[in-house]
Amino acid sequence: MAKEKIVKVRQLTRWQRLGVASLFVFGAIVLAGGVFILSGIYNIGASREHWSLTNFIITILRDRSVAVASGGIEVPELDDPDLYQLGEQHFLGTCNTCHGTPGEPLNPLYSHMLPQPPDLTGAFEHYDAREVFWVVNHGLKYTGMPAWPAAHRPDEVWSLVSYLRRLNEIGPENAAIEDSAVEQAQNLNTCLRCHGAAGQPPVSDLVPRLDGLSEAYLRRALEEYRGGQRGSGIMAPIAFDMSEEEIASNAASYASLPPPAGRANGAGDIALGRQIARQGLPEQDVPACQSCHGVNPAAPRLDAQSERYMATQLKLWQHAGYRDASAEGRLMSVIGRRLTEAQGEAVSAYYAAQNAEAAP
Amino acid sequence: MSFRSSVAGLICLPLLAGCSSQQSAFHPTGHDAEQINLLFWVMTLGGAAILALVIVLAAIAITGPERVRRRLAGEGLINWLGIGFPVVVLTALLIYGFVLLQAGAQAETGTTSLRIAVSGEQWWWRVTYRTADGREIDAANEIHLPVGQPVTLELTTADVIHSFWAPSIAGKLDMIPGRTNQMTVTATRPGITRGQCAEYCGGAHAFMAFHVVAQTPAAFEAWLEREAADAVPPQSESLQRGGELFLTSGCGGCHTVRGTPADGTIGPDLTHVGGRHSLAAATLPNSAEAFAAFIVNNQHIKPENRMPPYGIFSEDQLDDLAGYLEGLR
């Protein structure tokens, strides 16, 4: 009896035996994996498609990641011409390098990428607005899809989402017709594409009106976009491509144009806006806007600026750290933080209506 | 500022204050402060005498000769020294204190010809002189008093509770939101003393101080005339450039310089800032270098103060601007 007992104690239980066996199996797998990686058998070339099993796993991984990460994102009104017209210009100026013009064959250079950049006419068939926003904002690992080149600019990302939604709705054939005018602009200066030619309004109210702004300010803005001190996923790649001379000449040419006329607007709280612009809000430690804007060429003139553009910028100024990389930015970010969103909208409405042509 | 250096600074502050008679209740230069000083010494010396008496009696009770100890244990001593003496002495001291500090007296209003409105703001003092002939003269961070004339201080606050304390002139009085606390002070000797906020009021509380300048009535009148006048236009070319910078760089959005378009009311009136004895509420000495340092580096010098950091100037521009401000006397 006693002898039997000793034998029983030495014997591994069923679970212990299983554990040892799994250790062996796991070790074998790690070893085989190491041999596979180091042997160089795997073909990393883009000329050869993934195995269907790899494709299957990647697709599920990607879609689950996008679906989970995009939960809780608040979607603005997307059927908004200001949004999709700006998005369209950005798409045709930047995204179409890889994704191609919708409905047209892809440049063979990019059609030989793996994965091949998809024609985005179908983006809204596979994903909803939240998911498209998340992919455009964050990019996708291992695919060549970059993240949005500026942090804290969801407002810009939505313009592209809005355009992709519209593209899906009206189809590339119709979009292509609308683009004919744009194709002409494409041959012209990059700035004109969105900001409009002399005397013409910008393509969208989300785009600032540059006519007659001071040369010093325009130059600084382009330099800050180029250097990353001022965040914009739309302007950063454009400014990056500009030489010192191009920056100087673009700034000079816009500065030489006559300032635009404002647009009368009945909706905003013009009285509050006028007070903020002229007297400031002493109880909130907000100085009058016009103590710098309009008297100092380093600060942009705000008269007749687009209301939506200005309100968007003031929302960015409300966050410490979005814009405080330059000395001017540190100055304005202190003041911007002291304005509420409603006050920012009121002062934007006031300035947009300045120098307005008499209502008919 | 590192935690360690802040702690070291905090420990040093009272020590430093102890070394100087500039901000000291023991060196009174005002009527109220003299009374407080007298009361302090009467109370302290009286208390010390009573303590000495008690110690002597206790020592006798323990080690004295049998005959004396028996007398100490008698009921007579308890009645006289234990009940009678405290009742008489404490009552007398209490009444003396009340009379001296005019406890319960209504603050006189309208009796002084000069009234100075002092508003505590995070973290500086807005000072408005109201003369008998109805003039209002704005200044900041410094209080001028004519020696020998009672002056009413109207103490208010624009934000949180502050406490106005110029220990050489008078006791402290809180500045309460929604209230005007009045205090009548009389400077008794000419000289410059210092006061500060005595109620924690947020980040830069420690840098919220001021100078009190007591002057002979004639000197005070002359000073008030100069203070009431507009700023003298800058004469040299560099100072003119400085003045131009002041007007185009947004300074006027918060600061007033009378006689120029700068009419902001958010920060201190700078019309005669160069003539004050300190900068930034007694944070820095008044010099062109200090102006330049504060313009660029104010968040480091006086953390959390409401002025934005002004890093937009070149060295030359900063020199011009600082020179202009220092020249506003």
Rg calc of chain B: 26 Å
- Estimate the strand proportion of chain A: under 5%
**Oligomerization:** heterodimer
Task: Show unreliable segments of chain A.
Answer: none
Q: SSE string of chain A, helix = H, strand = E?
A: HHHHHHHHHHHHHHHHH
Mean pLDDT across the residues of chain A is 89
Question: Helical segment tally of chain A?
Answer: 17
- Give the CATH class of the largest domain in chain A: Mainly Alpha
**What is the CATH architecture descriptor of the largest domain in chain B?**
Sandwich
Count the domains of chain A: 3
Produce a short descriptive summary.
Chain A is an all-alpha fold and 360 residues long.
Descriptive account of the structure:
Helices cover 57% and strands 0% of the residues of chain A. Chain A is mainly alpha-helical. Chain A folds into 3 domains: 81-187, Cytochrome Bc1 Complex, Chain D, domain 2; 191-260, Cytochrome Bc1 Complex, Chain D, domain 2; 262-360, Cytochrome Bc1 Complex, Chain D, domain 2 (Orthogonal Bundle), CATH 1.10.760. In chain A, α7 (129-138) crosses α8 and α14 (270-278) crosses α17. Chain A is elongated. Chain B is 41% helix and 18% strand. Chain B is built from 8 helices and 10 strands. Chain B has helices spanning 3-19, 31-63, 66-72, 75-101, 217-228, 237-248, 288-301, 315-326, and strands at 114-121, 124-130, 136-140, 142-146, 150-157, 162-165, 173-175, 181-186, 191-197, 209-215. In chain B, strands 3-2-1-5-8 form a 5-stranded mixed sheet. A 5-stranded mixed sheet of chain B has the order 4-10-9-6-7, covered by helices on one side. The interface between A and B is medium-sized, with 19 and 17 residues.
Helices and strands in order:
The complex is a heterodimer of chains A (360) and B (329).
Chain A: H1 2-10, H2 14-39, H3 52-69, H4 81-99, H5 108-111, H6 123-126, H7 129-138, H8 154-178, H9 180-187, H10 190-195, H11 215-227, H12 235-240, H13 244-255, H14 270-278, H15 307-317, H16 327-338, H17 341-352
Chain B: H1 3-19, H2 31-63, H3 66-72, H4 75-101, E1 114-121, E2 124-130, E3 136-140, E4 142-146, E5 150-157, E6 162-165, E7 173-175, E8 181-186, E9 191-197, E10 209-215, H5 217-228, H6 237-248, H7 288-301, H8 315-326
Parallel strand pairs in B: 1-5, 4-10
Antiparallel strand pairs in B: 1-2, 2-3, 5-8, 6-7, 6-9, 9-10
